[in-house]
Each structure stands twice: as structure tokens, then as C-alpha cells.
Amino acid sequence: MADPERIAEEIMAYYRALDESATSRHYFRHADDEGGLWYVEAVPDRGELTVLKQAELTSAGQLHRYSWEHMEDEHGGLTDQAIDPAVDPLQPIPAEEFRRVWTRPSTPEGAE
């Protein structure tokens, strides 16, 4: 049987290595049905775009961030699915827009 802890460490190491070696990055935004906005940073890997960083800005103003440093929590997690801008409802955005959201201070839950 595979050790779940070891598998999680290998996945984290894979994403970290991709992040540290990426020479080309792509940025997208997606609005969900609940009024939230999703922001992603993706890199080409094995002929696909792999998401390295993902931020969800909920309609209530909550910000949830996921990357190799924080893969998941009670709100969600970093997608493990490749994205395809030709098929997925993604809008290309400038890197600056992604960084503005990614570096924004989080609002504690329940705060307004």
C-alpha cells in the first residue's frame, strides 16, 4: 500500500519544482455561479497547462489561496486538473492583476 503522507510530499515536491523552474507563466480569471472570482497562475508541463497557484475571492470577500505551500484546507484546494483556455471558461488577465489578488491581505472569516 502507498503511504498517503509520502504521496502528499511527492505531489508537493512536484508542484514546487514546477514553480521554481517555470520559464513561462499564464494568468486567468473565472467568475463562478455564486459571484466569486477565481484567479489562476499556470505553467506549461507535458503539453498541458498545470495550475501552480489558485486564488478564490468569494462573493462575501473571503480570499482563499492554494499553491504547493498550502495545497488544501476546509474551503477547497489546488486543482489537480490541467486547464485548457480553449475549452474552459477562462479569461486571460495580466500578471499584475493576478499578483494584486494573490498578495492581497486575507479577511478573517466572519469579518466584514
Task: Summarize the SSE layout with pairings.
Elements: H1 4-21, E1 26-31, E2 37-45, E3 48-57, E4 63-66, E5 72-73, E6 76-77, E7 91-92, H2 95-102
Antiparallel strand pairs: 1-2, 1-7, 2-3, 3-4, 5-6
Molecular structure report:
The chain has 112 residues and is an alpha+beta fold. The chain is 23% helix and 31% strand. It has two helices and seven strands; from the N terminus they run H-E-E-E-E-E-E-E-H. It has helices at residues 4-21, 95-102, and strands at 26-31, 37-45, 48-57, 63-66, 72-73, 76-77, 91-92. Strands 4-3-2-1-7 form a five-stranded antiparallel β-sheet. The longest helix has 18 residues, at 4-21. The mean pLDDT is 90.
Which strands sit side by side, in order, in the main sheet?
A: 4-3-2-1-7
Uncertain ranges = none
SS field, number of helical segments: 2
Mean pLDDT: 90
Biggest pleated-sheet summary:
5 strands, antiparallel
Class from secondary-structure proportions: alpha+beta
Report the strand count. Answer: 7
Task: Indicate the overall shape.
Answer: globular
Helicity range: 10-25%
Assess the beta-strand content as a share of residues: 25-35%
String of helices and strands: HEEEEEEEH
Distance between the termini: 46 Å
- Computed over alpha carbons, the radius of gyration is 15 Å
